[in-house]
UniProtKB/TrEMBL annotation:
Keyword Transmembrane belongs to the record: yes
Presence of keyword Transmembrane helix: yes
Compartment(s): Membrane
Gene Ontology annotations for the cellular component aspect, listed alphabetically: endoplasmic reticulum; membrane
Species classification: Eukaryota, Metazoa, Ecdysozoa, Arthropoda, Hexapoda
Protein name as annotated: Phosphatidylinositol N-acetylglucosaminyltransferase subunit P
Protein species of origin: Fopius arisanus
Swiss-Prot/TrEMBL GO biological process terms: GPI anchor biosynthetic process
Pathway(s) served: Glycolipid biosynthesis; glycosylphosphatidylinositol-anchor biosynthesis
Function: Part of the complex catalyzing the transfer of N-acetylglucosamine from UDP-N-acetylglucosamine to phosphatidylinositol, the first step of GPI biosynthesis.
Stretches assigned to the PIG-P domain: 15-127
PANTHER family: PHOSPHATIDYLINOSITOL N-ACETYLGLUCOSAMINYLTRANSFERASE SUBUNIT P
Amino acid sequence: MPKMSEHTPAPYRPRSVYGYALYIGSNMLFFLYLVWAVVPENFFDEKLGLTYWPVKYWAVAIPIWALTAIAIFAFIIYPGINMLMTPDIDDIRTIKDQYSLVQSEHIPGGIPPVSDLPITDVCRRLYLKERVNKQH
């Protein structure tokens, strides 16, 4: 069994117990939610003696609000954050940054190592052939 200070995604006994408890607990909460949303209020009052329950409006409103919040985050906020983090088109970081991998020598006939393509090679392959072909 790994030490408690060790962070690992591998399964071990406490994690499996917590996962099972969360699975059972979430299923029970969902079942109670469905019962509350579907069963008429007078059944709770007459048969069980429970007089206060939230209005049935919330059985529909809470999931819709949650889905709306997720949609707003997924389609507006998250792309906005990504656009704010992306450097401008004329920024040097769009060509080379601290994570750039420089091309290195490789064995002829072998698979070249992973590296970034220099912008000059990319432009040469994309645009120079076309201009040479149009001139001839």
